[in-house]
Write a structure and sequence with these properties.
Elements lengths: L8 E2 L2 E2 L1 H21 L13 H5 L11 H12 L21 H13 L10 H18 L12 E5 L2 H16 L13 E6 L4 H9 L7 E4 L9 H13 L3 E8 L11 H11 L2 E5 L24 E4 L1 H4 L7 E5 L2 H8 L9 H5 L18 H36 L3 E3 L7 E6 L3 H14 L5 E5 L2 E7 L7 H25 L11
Parallel strand pairs: 4-5, 4-6, 6-7, 7-8
Antiparallel strand pairs: 1-2, 3-9, 8-9, 10-11, 11-13, 12-13
Bound molecules: pyridoxal-5'-phosphate (PLP).
The site of pyridoxal-5'-phosphate has 14 residues, from α6.
Length: about 500
Amino acid sequence: MSAGRIPPQDGFHMSPEAFRYYGRAVVDWIADYYARVESYPVLSQVAPGEVYRSLPPEPPEHGEGFEAILADIDRLILPGITHWQSPNFFAFFPANTSGPSILGELLAGGLGVQGMLWATSPACTELETRVLDWLIEMLGLPLRFRSDGPGGGVIQDSASSATLCALLAARGRATDPRCSDQGSDGRLVCYASTEAHSSIEKAVRIAGLGRHGLCRIAVDERFAMRPDALAERIAQDRAQGLLPFFVCATIGTTSSNAIDPLPAIGEVCREAGLWLHVDAAMSGTAAICPEYRYLHAGMALAHSYCFNPHKWMFTNFDCDCFYVADRSALIESLSVLPDYLRNRASESGAVFDYRDWQVPLGRRFRALKLWFVIRHYGIEGLRHHIRRHVELAQEFARWVADSTRFELCITPPLNLVCFRHRAGDAFNRELLDRLNGGGRLYLTHTILRNRYTLRLCVGQTYTESRHVQAAWQTIQETAAQLERQRMILGAPRGNRTPNC
Ligand SMILES: *Cc1c(COP(=O)(O)O)cnc(C)c1O
């Protein structure tokens, strides 16, 4: 930190002058962090309990200088950080960010508003409404999600919350939201594919639908939900006296980026009168590019939709955009009005109170960072970087396909590549451990067709060709080392099979 006069305190508070001074130091720290982020091991190498034990057991009786606090970020916290913003982060799905987003977060913190009601900060609500309407056009979503009709969009903390809210709204529509017992009689059934995200199972549990509340539908050879199996199962359940009411389709499953066939699933839902929710957590962002708009084909039949700008659209966690075609179903399910929240604006019916569109009461000013990101990049800039990520992943997939040691487990539709070494599960497991222990990159795994499979997802903001090239180099070298060791040890080579 730059030397200078110690800025004054204001009683126990940080004075505005001190805030200005240390605020600049924090922004400098972040800029420096991005400049050196590649020098850290991507996956934190600390042992369990190490960070906890490094922290003082007692809280401070007397306030400390900010210099000392900031210095401890480097000393105590950084070693325990897994660097999600490293361009060598290829694990899970990304949680990327960008300069304009970080600055939007900072401003939201500075304003410190609580946007539970329109009246508690009209700009917090109306900016959100406008930006979510923009995104409908940007992603080619159906116009019935727009706020100027019966639908509307709202920012949730996560796709998990969006899916829970969709499920509650759907239950409200299928039963009567005022009869709270109806949901727990064990007859309501939701449907999602065997590859759908764990958040659906969690939502079903939170909603109290019971052990049989979620039915997993079989997938095809590309891990996408089979609409025929869905239709069959709905008919069977109906015949048994159950109440099918909700289907969650996925655009880009977390395991393999599978894309459920929305047009056919939408038809099944329409005929059976079921609510269709579409979870496009990461891959929805791709639809900003006209060539990936096909991902949203069939969306006209969906009742709700969500995607996460906090995964692949350069916006800090947390930010999930959730849309409903009929907001009244959502609001009726979630609105509880105590007298102390009554106000003239709400009663006029001319405003949105987003507290009625989500589980918590309070809400942060998240639209600010999203607005900054969209204005900074423009549609053009976002398209450019999304295309680049897809190209880099596709290039990696070609290297895998051309190699004799490795094989692709599925043709990658976008920015996620699922691949494996041909030497079998134990080898791949050991390979992944070594790669992540080496610190030069971070990958995670999945299981596809009962086989241990490596995943490489390109989506961190600053990932460039050289990072993906270096990753492939490291993967090949580490595999070659492991092969040699196994030969020396005479370990079995595992099955060599042409396909996963
Ligand atoms: C990541 C992911 C989720 C969960 O996202 P959160 O915003 O962390 O709740 C849900 N669905 C899919 C398909 C995902 O990839």
